[in-house]
């Protein structure tokens, strides 16, 4: 997906300004920025839920105004109590909803779980939770269920809004390891995060925005200057691995 000089305003108040970036196959992009910086607006533009006031957003080379193959894009929202606490459905039923392509009268004669649902549950590592209600699961398990729903139609792009909010450190490491398996299979993954450390460690690319684009590129190329511009605070970066220099 490409954003070309894209801008959007709410009631005359600018949310994102002149954003140009692209996401490619086998890429794990993390979008960073302070509260109110336009991160969620950028996701909505990518998903076609908003149309830019100026510029253009092109999923797979086609402007959102004429793009129709949205099955190629999966979306995972934040886990919220309203969804998991009041939604009287099992994990399997939730994932099956993601596989819905329109009414088919023959489905009343089908008793077996669709193979696509089985595959999605297996990929997400939760086949043993198929019969469990969402409200009975941990936050990490709920997030896996939402991912299974998002990937049941085998999308090329997976977009997530704060996917590890409320997940403990161990769960986060497991979660990003899982995302890397999706990326290795050819999927592009874009997610919003507030965790700078995780972004620098796990992402293949980072997009830092504060209404406008402050930085876009490999995480090892970002400097304290960009973070100062992003958050308005002096930040020292200490990275210790084979790719990143120590600074």
- Which whole number gives the mean pLDDT? 84
Number of strands: 9
Distance between the termini: 32 Å
- Indicate the multimeric state: single chain
- Helical residues, percent: 25-40%
Structure notes:
The protein has about 250 residues and is α/β, with parallel strands linked by helices. The protein has helices at about 40-45, 80-85, 90-100, 115-125, 140-150, 170-185, 195-200, 225-230, and strands at about 1-10, 15-20, 30, 55-60, 75, 155-160, 190, 205-210, 210-215. The strands form 2 sheets. It has a 6-stranded mixed β-sheet with strand order 5-6-7-3-8-9, with helices on both faces. Strands 2-1-4 form a 3-stranded antiparallel β-sheet, covered by helices on one side. The longest helix is centred in the last third of the chain and has 16 residues, at about 170-185. The two termini are about 30 Å apart.
């Amino acid at each position: 997906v490409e954003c070309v000089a894209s801008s959007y305003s709410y009631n005359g108040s600018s949310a994102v300004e002149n954003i140009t970036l692209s996401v490619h196959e086998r890429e794990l992009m993390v979008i960073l920025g302070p509260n109110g910086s336009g991160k969620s607006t950028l996701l909505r533009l990518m998903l076609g839920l908003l149309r830019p006031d100026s510029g253009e957003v092109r999923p797979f080379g086609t402007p959102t105004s004429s793009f129709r193959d949205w099955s190629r894009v999966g979306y995972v929202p934040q886990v919220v109590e309203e969804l998991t606490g009041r939604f009287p459905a099992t994990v399997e039923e939730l994932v099956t909803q993601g596989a819905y392509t329109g009414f088919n009268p023959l489905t009343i004669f089908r008793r077996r779980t669709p193979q696509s649902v089985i595959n999605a549950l297996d990929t997400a590592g939760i086949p043993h939770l198929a019969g469990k209600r969402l409200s009975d699961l941990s936050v990490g398990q709920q997030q896996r269920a939402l991912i299974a729903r998002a990937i049941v139609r085998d999308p090329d792009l997976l977009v997530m809004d704060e996917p590890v909010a409320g997940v403990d450190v161990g769960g986060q490491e497991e979660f990003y390891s899982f995302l890397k398996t999706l990326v290795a299979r050819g999927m592009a993954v874009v997610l919003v995060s507030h965790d700078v450390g995780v972004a620098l460690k796990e992402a293949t690319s980072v997009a830092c925005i504060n209404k406008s684009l402050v930085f876009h590129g490999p995480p090892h190329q970002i400097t304290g200057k960009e973070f100062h511009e992003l958050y308005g605070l002096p930040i020292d970066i200490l990275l210790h691995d084979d790719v990143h220099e120590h600074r």
